[in-house]
Write a structure and sequence with these properties.
The protein has helices spanning about 1-5, 35-50, 60-75, 75-85, 90-95, 100-110; strands at about 10-15, 20-25, 30. It has about 110 residues and is α+β, with helices and mostly antiparallel strands.
Amino acid sequence: MHAESLGLEVVVRPLRTGHELWLPEYNTLLVNSRLRAVPQRLALAHGVGHAALGHEDDRPKHEKQADKFAAQNLICPVELADLYEWCADEQRIVQELGVTTRLFRAYVLAHAA
């Protein structure tokens, strides 16, 4: 729905490399159809981040910003707080949330400030 609200066309198709590809000149996000459901969801959230933030390239700074955007949209703070109540293991929390360690750390870093 977020992609749609941005007028972003999302195309799911096989990609040779990468999980997603943001094509700003076409306002299109390609998502790799060879990925399973959870990695596809993560790739979509990351790519929507690039679009929402107006990125024109994939420099490291933009990658971190897109990760932060995806993490903010995929991690529910209430669910995370509940998980911390019964488990302090980062990998277990990552699995429970259905995100990558990279996205989880982007979320934690954004909320540490």
